[in-house]
Amino acid sequence: MAKKTLIIGGGIAGITAAQKIAQNGGTALLIEKEGHLGGNFAKLTYTFPVLADAKGIVTREIKTAEELAGIEILPRTTLESCRGEAGNFTVELGTPSGRRTEQVAAIVVAAGFHYMEPTAYTEYAYGRSAKVVTSLEFEKMAAEGRLPQGPARVVFVHCVGSRDKAKGYRYCSKICCSYSAKHAIMLKQANPEAKAYVFYIDIRALGKGYEEFIREAMEKYNVRYIRGRVAKVIESGDKLLVRAEDSLIGNPVEVEADLVVLASAMEPPQGSRALAGILGIATDEYGFFREAEANVRPCHSSKEGIFLAGSCTQPMEIAAAVAMGGLAASEALILSR
Amino acid sequence: MRLKIDEDGIRTMVEQSIGKSLTSCLQCSKCGGGCVHSEEFDLTPRQVVESLLDCQDGKVLDSRMIWLCGRSCSACQAVCPVGLPLNEIMAVLREEAGRRGIEPKYEKPSMIYYKFEHCAKHQEEGEASESSTGRETQPA
């Protein structure tokens, strides 16, 4: 019988890796620290660049994984220790019913990412005004039908924590341009009376259908894009004043808003360095897991037999996380025969 | 108007004074959006940096912008994602303008900012800047 593969993290990358291992004759042990599978994907209402039902898709993928005979799913479970080498690891798991020891041939780390909490951005009145929310909070508002009603004006702010080495991260979080466009479209669909503004430095929406998606937001949904990073958000009565420089006109501008949505950075999953310590693998300067070689071995960690998948390696969109989950699964299968 | 791009200019002197390279500027324009003098800009702060990179020395030294900037204010620097000390850059440029005999385009703000009021002014955002009410403005 094939040896087991341990998969750490039940988001879309981990679910995909587990499915592919089981569908190809292997056995997967999928552990998830939360009580349910789905990860960050499960917090979304719609996907981009195709506005598809996110909840429906993730529910379908979870169901497929649950029904496959070769997958054992352990919720509320974490990795406690790891010994051994490629082909023969001994791992100790902390489960709700106590410790459990397992022998596995390979390990796939699919620990996901965390949305940065923009508490350092006092200039945006985050935490001070209830009308300044993060994109993740906007997703929740949309899911619960709490989006602004009537002729409300909503301002979307790009690059909060990304491309900011003073208060955040130097890197670009890659997906914010696209999900902000998605949010603006969601707003306009739910409330055509609303006005949407997006403040950007430059638009990074690369991939099939992405450029068209952004153009659709501008042309079909009449979302106004203004080039310039927002400088400050000022509370003014029951409104918010958003100040920036329109860097195309070269002039400071001001927009009165009812809601400001901050596109906060994707950061490494919480506890990524501790997990890397247990596994004995390397992380980069930010805490993302480091790949052995960025171009042709993106899913190899610094240790043989331990593979990486999804946004715990770098900010990435769902499609890339799925592809990487599949690649990690095929690498793991080589060791488990 | 077509500009002639050059490689030799006061950029080097500015970079030596602040101990940082101007190439770190992202051109995100966050600096200009929050300045209390934004009503009075001719060039915006990021345009000053961009112009310095292309060695448009005359354009920068003749601008009003470099004189608007308060010597002890650091509001833009505090929010700059790459930590460029814009107020120091403007101070260096004012000095150079002085050396070249260029008349100050706007002197009052730096006088105001030597006093304590400048702190209160920055805290009370949303109100018109003192200099834009006309009281403090002097002909350019």
From TrEMBL, chain A:
Q: Does the keyword Iron-sulfur apply?
A: yes
UniProt entry tagged with the keyword Oxidoreductase: yes
Q: Which InterPro entries is this protein grouped with?
A: FAD/NAD-bd_sf (IPR036188), FAD/NAD-binding_dom (IPR023753), HdrA-like (IPR039650)
Q: Where is the FAD/NAD(P)-binding domain?
A: 4-121, 204-325
**Superkingdom field:** Bacteria
Q: Which Pfam families match?
A: Pyr_redox_2 (PF07992)
GO terms assigned for molecular function: 4 iron, 4 sulfur cluster binding; metal ion binding; oxidoreductase activity
Name the EC number(s).
1.-.-.-
Q: Which UniProt keywords apply?
A: 4Fe-4S, Iron, Iron-sulfur, Metal-binding, Oxidoreductase
Q: What is this protein called?
A: CoB--CoM heterodisulfide reductase iron-sulfur subunit A
TrEMBL record, chain B:
Which InterPro entries does the protein's record reference?
A: HdrC_iron-sulfur_subunit (IPR051460), Helical_ferredxn (IPR009051)
Q: Which residues form a coiled coil?
A: none
GO MF annotations in UniProt: iron-sulfur cluster binding
The cross-references to Pfam families, in alphabetical order and at most eight, read: Fer4_17
Q: Name one GO cellular component term.
A: plasma membrane
Protein name per UniProt: Alpha-helical ferredoxin
Origin organism is Acididesulfobacillus acetoxydans
